[in-house]
Amino acid sequence: MSLVIKSDKEIAVMRQAGRIVATVLRVLSSKMRAGMKTEELDDIAVRELKKLGAKSSFKGYRGFPATLCVSVNDEIVHGIPGKRILQEGDIVSLDFGAIFQGFHGDAAVTVGVGKISPQAERLIAATEGALQAGIAAACPGARLGDVSVAIQRYAESRGYSVVREYTGHGIGREMHEEPQIPNFGLPGQGLVLKKGMTLAIEPMVNIGDWRTTVADDHWTVSTSDGSLSAHFEHTIAVTDAEAEVLTSL
Ligand code: MG
User: Is 242:139 a contact under the CB 8 Å cutoff?
Assistant: First the structure.
């Protein structure tokens, strides 16, 4: 873990890694159906990644057994794909990372299976909005706390809580670099953002309480109160002006 400022050339490679991540997430979102096993989504991710000539950031990371994290309903992050069958009305967080020419891209989306409840729809919209608020705050000269608090305010003003025990992170040649990026904080505090910093910003937002529980599989993180959770993430680069989203098409 160290904080690394990237050159324009390195960011150009990260843009390619990011596009690969966005492409795979788009395919996964379009193929998700009720009746599917979550491991089928992992199979698709493996296949698409191979087609695009990149490698998984997640598989084998601290022993993680899959290419994709699939977290359903009250699961927040790090769900292991398996035999669970997706049901109409589920919300599914897909977190995916790829390495291309030595650089990582990392992004996540929460997608509904078929028709979902209005409460779930509002949660998903608020989490995506919180991510956009965080990205908008990631200007050169701003501080990390400005990003964190933008996310927190967006989510909490809508009646939700932000997960505190897991954070966003710097990203580059390592999937997790400095700094950690909490989804809560204080304006004007923390590291000053500079051009060439590449960050994975990732609000995890719960309908209920922010507290989390890790399952017996040692990976799957769920809300302690069983409430629904959503997760959105982009890898971005701090520029001279507005941040550039690298994990987009
Ligand atoms: Mg991440």
Answer: yes
